[in-house]
Amino acid sequence: MIIRDAANDELAYIREQRVHSYQEHAAKIPVDHWNALKKAISSEADTLEGVELIVAELDGQVVGSVALFPAKSDAYEGYLEELDYPEIRMLSVTPEARGKGAAKGLVSECIRRAEAKGFSSIGLHTGQFMEGAMRLYESMGFKREPKFDFEPANDGIIVKAYRLTLK
């Protein structure tokens, strides 16, 4: 597994791959929420200044990606105040590549980069319906930060905040 920065010519593919990877959640949530989520993970937010787009490559194929937003950025387009630490967003791994360490490798790389920049913590948000993602984050030591939860679609579905204290 190779974890590396994404190339500019991979952006369209990565965004399509995100939608494909998140598609399994479409049946669990209202259509309007799915449409909003799909719009968010397909947006050009991953090209904002300071955002690091990272991919996991297996056997020469990109199988996953994550965007690491800098501290003090509007990572959630107005839904949340700016945080004092980097934020992991849009983690995705193709269904075919799950269970091979791509997600953990991508999150670990985000942690490594935040530590290298001297941050004392790193955060992320995930939909309450993403049980597998929450298990991964909790297994890596992330703790809930409910004060930073939000409800983007006013449909009762909460986007849960997590934070990891770094070394």
Please write the CATH class name. Answer: Alpha Beta
Mean pLDDT reading: 91
Helix content: 25-40%
Q: Looking across the biggest beta sheet, what order are the strands in?
A: 1-2-3-4-5-7-6
**Portion in beta strands:** 25-35%
Number of strands: 7
Query: Which series of helices and strands comes N to C?
Result: EHHEEEHEHEE
Shape assignment:
globular
Please tell me the total number of domains: 1
Task: Write up what this structure looks like.
With 167 residues, this protein is of the alpha+beta class. The chain has a single domain (2-165), classed as 3-Layer(aba) Sandwich (Aminopeptidase). Helices cover 29% and strands 26% of the residues. Strands 1-2-3-4-5-7-6 form a 7-stranded mixed β-sheet. The radius of gyration is 15 Å and the shape is globular.
Secondary-structure map:
Blueprint: E1 2-5, H1 11-22, H2 31-42, E2 52-58, E3 61-69, E4 87-93, H3 102-116, E5 121-127, H4 131-139, E6 143-144, E7 159-165
Parallel strand pairs: 4-5
Antiparallel strand pairs: 1-2, 2-3, 3-4, 5-7, 6-7
Entry summary:
The protein contains four helices and seven strands. The chain is α+β, with helices and mostly antiparallel strands and 167 residues long.
